[in-house]
Amino acid sequence: MGKRQAERAPDRRRRRLTRLLPAGLALTAVMLASGAAVAHWQDDRDAARRAAEFENHVDGPSDGGATSSPSTSRSPSPSSSPSSKPKKPKKSSTPSASPSHSSGTGTIPVPATGPGTFTTAQADGTVVGTGSRVRRYKVMVEDGIDVSAKSAATYIASVLGDRRGWTRDGVDSFKLVSSGSYDFVVKIATPGTVDRICGAAGLDTHGELDCSVGTDVVVNLKRWVLGSPQFPGPITEYRALIINHEVGHRIGHGHEGCPGPGKPAPAMMQQIKGLHGCVANAWPYDKYGHYISGPPV
């Protein structure tokens, strides 16, 4: 009896092991799956953390402009070091940009746009020039800008009456009027208003340029205040170029090109688009009364 029990004992152990093996394998599989899930979850957390650190590094105020890959950047602290000074916030760009090459002061604000209504300069009936063909003109300044219609009209009259201006041809003279009929009107306006007036005639002034439309000589306040990167010298000279160029269109002159390297640019040349080897010049005539011309464009 004892011998048969001893012989059956190994059989019982084998059967017990056979029953336990599937359960053990199943438990092992569960543990492996759980471990993989935990690892995957941890990887997701690490990836999310690294992405957040990268965004904070790029956009944060204390990165000093340095570049770093996501794997080496660290979460930003309130201050990068106890001695570091916080960066001053960048100043928002204002409509009155810094002065360009023309020596404009930039002290007059240049709003992006205005109401589109104008104040007309009062006239005293003075005529500049001796020519028999009298051109009647008005000067109007958009409301809400820091340029008076009176001062603008006084300056424009001085440009038109200059011996280097259009009156030198002996044909044209100019009379400022504030009412009644007129041949053209000089309007000084904000960039947005210039774009609207010129755009109605199919011209794209990009918030930067002047234009001549119908009887309107439309002067961009930005150019009146800041001048042009292409035009060195006093801002008053560049204003003279604006008036001479646009009034030149009104009395029948078209665009002209550079006559040659080192020569004065014609007043009818679009100098704001580049001098092409010419020397900047605001006047139609030189001091000797010679017309400064270039090839027609």
UniProtKB/TrEMBL annotation:
Residues 41-60 have a biased composition (Basic and acidic residues). Residues 109-275 form the DUF3152 domain. This is DUF3152 domain-containing protein. Residues 36-124 are annotated as: Disordered. Residues 67-84, 92-103 have a biased composition (Low complexity). Pfam families: DUF3152. Residues 1-39 form the signal peptide. It comes from the Bacteria. The keyword Signal applies. The lineage of its organism: Bacteria, Bacillati, Actinomycetota, Actinomycetes, Kitasatosporales. Keywords: Signal.
